[in-house]
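Action item from last week, closing it out:
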Amino acid sequence: MSQKAMIQNGWSLLEHGLLWKEVVKSAADKQSFGKRAEEFVKHLQEAALPRNALEGLLLDRMASSYLRKVMLLEEQAAYKDDRRDRVRAHYKGRAPEEMAKAVLLDTSPSTLLHEGYEGVMQYESILDRGFHRDTFLLLQLQQLSEQSTSSSPKKPQSTSKTIEGNTKKPAIG
């Protein structure tokens, strides 16, 4: 389905989303990250097909949470690479086993937690919870919307009286 068709049928995350675009602005490599983000947003749009602004807002929040997590994980990887490089430089000329042990020890989760990494882990957890909450809310909203459209209003049975004052009785047959 093309973006124009999506706009005609509902809300377009690519066009109307604001939050995910702000996340892209804060990326280290805006151009590369922006392309990846747009591709993700297109796939998310196709998967969820938001029909109104409320569903679109939830989708925008989901996209921004996911993209922030991607940025966080990329930053974590770069930080660990930097630490590994420093340990390797410090242990240069020593036995490979000794260097490998030092690298593993320096980048282990317990070492990183003692050095203030706990806040990063909490932030990652908050992003995950927000993404899952918004996913759940979007699915609930879409389910309620489907239920309301599938249960078309039933016409009430007429109990009108005839001119003579008798109630009409349905013919059995």
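Closing note: Helices lie at 3-9, 13-16, 19-25, 30-48, 53-90, 96-106, 109-150.
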